[in-house]
Specification:
This protein is mainly beta. Helix content is 14%, strand content 38%.
């Protein structure tokens, strides 16, 4: 069914159940209008969904087993959801994450928006994230099988949480995102170019201390539209010497997150929506 290259076929996949076979029932959910949906989990995987409709937190996509693979089904709603496999043990080296899927997207009129539904990989491990920018279809139209690749570096032994995520910022479409295969394979140290997102502790170069008129900001390399969040430990301090946990209480975080998401309900700017939601999700990790 899949057109694999010999090089990819020969690689050793590190994930369990890469073709998302079998399932367990997670739960049923009921939306405010009475519609009932189902969340099924592939064996060795977990479906996760972030509610986007604060007036109805159960207005989320369904996760349904198919032959082959699994499907995220979302009808006329904004959403973000995907599948995670947790606790994948990795040694130092370079890795390729790969997804094979088919986005079947329909619109209520003749207009087709190729940025309506997007997808990406997120890798979490060693107290940091390596994540892609959201990617749109590379086929020029929907309803074709696609592949998504993401290369990243691991610099120390760690336990990885592997996420394949998709989203629709706008509600004006119906989506059946059929996912056929999710893999993780070790690759050569030069695969993907000289600079790729990194997880794990790396040997830090000696740097001059910033003066009163200068500052420093850590940065990560990128490849193919990917972005990297470096290894930021909980001991990171502001110039005042205080940590974020010392400045904000749990109540403060909840109020700020609620305010950010309330603002999302009154703006149609996609960049603002994405930025405020990303900030809200980051702050929620403090709770």
């Amino acid at each position: 069914m899949f057109a694999f290259t010999k090089k990819v076929r020969a690689m050793s996949n590190l994930l369990k159940n890469p073709t998302l076979q079998g399932f367990t029932l997670g739960r049923y959910f009921t939306e405010a209008d009475g519609r009932v949906g189902a969340i099924e989990n592939p064996l060795d995987w977990e479906f996760i969904a972030y509610p986007k409709h604060h007036e109805d937190p159960e207005r989320i996509p369904q996760s349904l087993h198919r032959e082959p693979g699994f499907e995220i089904a979302a009808v006329y709603r904004s959403w973000e959801a995907g599948y995670v496999q947790r606790n994948v043990a990795l040694q130092p080296g370079r890795y390729l994450a790969r997804a094979v899927f088919r986005p079947d997207i329909a619109f209520p009129d003749a207009n087709v928006y190729l940025d309506a539904v997007t997808w990406r990989f997120v890798m979490e491990g060693g107290g940091a994230l390596a994540e892609q920018d959201w990617q749109m279809t590379q086929k020029g139209e929907y309803k074709h099988q696609e592949e998504l690749h993401f290369v990243f570096q691991v610099n120390a032994p760690l336990t990885l949480n592997y996420y394949f995520m998709a989203r629709s910022i706008y509600a004006g479409n119906s989506c059946d995102l059929d996912i056929y295969e999710l893999t993780l394979t070790p690759v050569a140290g030069d695969y993907g170019g000289a600079s790729v997102p990194t997880l794990g502790v790396a040997a830090a170069p000696v740097q001059a201390q910033p003066t009163a008129s200068s500052g420093s900001m850590g940065g990560g390399g990128s490849m193919g539209g990917a972005s990297s969040i470096g290894s930021v430990t909980p001991q990171t301090r502001a110039l005042s010497g205080k940590s974020l946990e010392q400045v904000l209480t749990a109540e403060d975080v909840q109020v700020i997150v609620a305010g950010l998401r309330a603002m999302n309900q009154v703006t149609n700017n996609a960049t603002v929506l994405t930025g405020m939601e990303r900030l809200a999700q980051a702050l929620e990790k403090l709770l």
